[in-house]
Specification:
InterPro entries: Bac_export_3, FliQ. The chain is an all-alpha fold. 87% of the residues lie in helices and 0% in strands.
């Protein structure tokens, strides 16, 4: 196992992590921005108002993207487990 291989494997893991987290982070960002605009327009400065819509948006995003996320994670894990004999050499 060479240092280049370890770095490449870590790079794949980081890219997969970023790719899997993007839908939820994006939805949370959009929900937070929409609530901030709503608060600025109506001048309601309630701090707890932002949490519930963000939680709902992230939960719905997770609900809809969970099959895709599981497929990506299982493919990555299967690839690593299948290639264990190659890693030992």
């Amino acid at each position: 196992m060479t240092p280049e291989f370890v770095v490449a494997l870590a790079k794949q893991a980081i890219i997969l992590t970023i790719m899997l987290s993007m839908p939820m982070l994006g939805l949370g960002l959009i929900a937070g921005l929409a609530i901030s605009v709503f608060q600025a327009v109506t001048q309601i400065q309630e701090m707890t108002l932002t949490f519930v819509p963000k939680i709902i948006a992230v939960f719905l995003g997770l609900l809809f993207t969970a099959p895709w996320m599981m497929e990506k994670m299982m493919a990555f894990t299967t690839n690593i487990i299948t290639n264990i004999p190659m890693y030992i050499r």
